[in-house]
Amino acid sequence: MEDVVLVRIYGNKTELLVDRDEEVKSFRVLQAHGCAPQLYCTFNNGLCYEFIQGEALDPKHVCNPAIFRYISFPK
């Protein structure tokens, strides 16, 4: 599993729903803070990034105090 990458190909007309430039900017910010995999490249209709073995979160996970942390923001 060391040489595995994910290649995401954007669906037809999905750019109408998702700003792809902002998505890549967000990906890079998250990556810089250790919260996203390594982004290897982008291309006209997709991107390629590092595969990280894991588990998708479900409601029982996000309710677990060891995973979820409530942050109160000033008003």
From TrEMBL:
Superkingdom of the source species: Eukaryota
GO molecular-function term, one example from the UniProt record: ethanolamine kinase activity
The pathway that the record names for this protein is:
Phospholipid metabolism; phosphatidylethanolamine biosynthesis; phosphatidylethanolamine from ethanolamine: step 1/3
Q: Which InterPro entries match?
A: Kinase-like_dom_sf
For the protein in the UniProt heading, the enzyme class is: transferase
> Pfam families of this UniProt entry?
Choline_kinase (PF01633)
Record keywords, A-Z = Lipid biosynthesis, Lipid metabolism, Phospholipid biosynthesis, Phospholipid metabolism
A single Gene Ontology CC term = cytoplasm
Gene Ontology BP annotations: phosphatidylethanolamine biosynthetic process
Supply the EC number(s): 2.7.1.82
What family is this protein classified in? Answer: Belongs to the choline/ethanolamine kinase family.
Q: What is this protein called?
A: ethanolamine kinase
Task: State the organism named in the record.
Answer: Bos mutus
Higher taxonomy: Eukaryota, Metazoa, Chordata, Craniata, Vertebrata
